[in-house]
Amino acid sequence: MRDLWAFPSRAATQIALAAAIALVVRLILLRWRHDIDWDGFFYLWQSQNILMGDFLHPSPEWTPYPLGYPLAIAVVSKMVMSLEGAGLLVSFLAGVLVLLPLFALADRIGGRGPAFLATLLVAVNSWLVRYSLSVLAESLFILLLVIWVWLLVADFRDQRFRPHTLLLFLISAALVFVRPVALTVLAGGVLLQAFRPSRRLATALRFALMGLVIAVAYAIYAHAVTGHLQKLTGQPQPSYALREMSRGLQQHYGDTRNVVPYVPPMSSVTFLRKNALLMVWRYVDTLLTQLSGGVLLDPLDKSLGVFPFYLWPFAAVGIWMCASERWRIAPLIALLPYFLVLPLFVADCRYYVPLVPFFLLYSAVGVEAFAGQLGQRARVATIVGIILISFVQAFQFNPHKSTGLSAYEEIGSWLRQHERPDTVFAYHPAPAYYAGASLMLIQKGQPVSEALSLKATQRAQRTFVVAPENEIQPHAVSLTPVYASQSAYPSRMIAYRVEF
């Protein structure tokens, strides 16, 4: 299929073209308002703490988020006007820069044609576009992960890699400090060494030692933040993973009579034994749900799974073609532990998105194999059609309608300007963030009166509650309405002054 890629033929030109398309798509969608996600506010809070010289202060009333992304925001904020803009810029740049290591990796594994196609698909992929326009860690994590796999493949082929060992270590550490789940990725690097043609044990030990050093470093950081070694996840329970399994089972099945909840006195073995079959079923169901999304219900709907369904056959062909040489499927082996561990705890497509660039890489290899059997016009039509479908999905999947100012931002900004609150109670972090106040998060379904009674609010001089209209019920503490939002997006909000 060499003639199909005759223009442009130079790697630099192909990368530049893919990057230009990525920029255009993102700039088009950037015209419309992108609300900050829930986690985004806590990343921004942590960035504020870093700028004040406090690297160990957790986000308010919430778990301490990993240090990597907030640190990047803090650095970039020196060059832009706001933290929100800095967070968006970090994600935006990472979403475009990922094309460079991906092209290099795909060129090594599949050749110049698949490398060009893979970068084009990444440039317009709906999920990758979404997270490059979000104040979330995904885009930065994906960039680091692609670089890590690229370095790993070079090491696997033993191509004079030793001078780059330090770079691999730094990228590995950055991965873990952006997303601690990357420890499973490092475990995949150790697993990969079993497939090496030579030096298996020595290299496996080297990778294991590197992962151990990074894991200990993160444990020390987490201990310094939380004050307890068992709180490495940021949660107060040492058995957080089992609690998450129990909560996930209950949410998944609804009828909790079938689930034996995990409580600290119950041993791990007992919990796993009593819920083993349910866990296996939930694992399979969660994995298939996340991979398929809404395909079985409506193939043209925007709620597609993580991996575009129309590329599955091409990805299968691409993997089959590469399987004859172990180093060409090294990325799949290295990422296998990460892929397999997620359904145990996570039922969110977001955590599978870092695997999308590698899926698109092998899909591009499969497309080349398929298109190579067709005539010139059919080849061009196939590839252009795939890219256009991906572009349409990116447009449908991402916000492209103006929503105006959210009630959260409106009411928070009003409080900052007129009331200067010390503490804001709210069901969402946004009002407190925009008000420049400490957050006291009210859990979903928790009455405001209960939340107020559980907090030492009397020590706060200026305390406010922000809640949706008609949400507040009568209780002992006197609440005086001070402002009602003009915006009804996502719902009309009321700010109350707390009177003691």
How does this model look, in words?
The chain is mostly helical and 500 residues long. The protein folds into two domains: 2-217 and 308-316 and 352-397, no CATH class; 407-499. It has 20 helices and five strands. The protein has helices at 11-30, 38-51, 68-76, 83-97, 99-110, 112-124, 126-132, 138-156, 165-178, 182-192, 200-226, 240-253, 268-292, 312-322, 330-345, 356-371, 376-397, 407-418, 430-435, 448-454; strands at 423-426, 438-441, 463-468, 478-484, 493-499. It has a five-stranded mixed beta sheet with strand order 2-1-3-5-4, sandwiched between helices. Helix 7 crosses helix 17 (376-397). The radius of gyration is 25 Å and the shape is globular. The relative contact order is 0.10. The model is unreliable at 1-7, 230-238 and 294-303 (pLDDT under 50).
What are the salient characteristics of this protein?
5 strands; single chain; mainly alpha; five-stranded mixed beta sheet; 500 residues; 20 helices; globular; disordered N terminus; 6% strand
Secondary structure layout plus pairing:
Blueprint: H1 11-30, H2 38-51, H3 68-76, H4 83-97, H5 99-110, H6 112-124, H7 126-132, H8 138-156, H9 165-178, H10 182-192, H11 200-226, H12 240-253, H13 268-292, H14 312-322, H15 330-345, H16 356-371, H17 376-397, H18 407-418, E1 423-426, H19 430-435, E2 438-441, H20 448-454, E3 463-468, E4 478-484, E5 493-499
Parallel strand pairs: 1-2, 1-3
Antiparallel strand pairs: 3-5, 4-5
Helix pairs in contact: 1-4, 1-6, 2-3, 3-4, 4-7, 4-8, 5-6, 5-8, 6-16, 6-17, 7-17, 8-9, 9-11, 10-11, 10-15, 12-13, 14-16
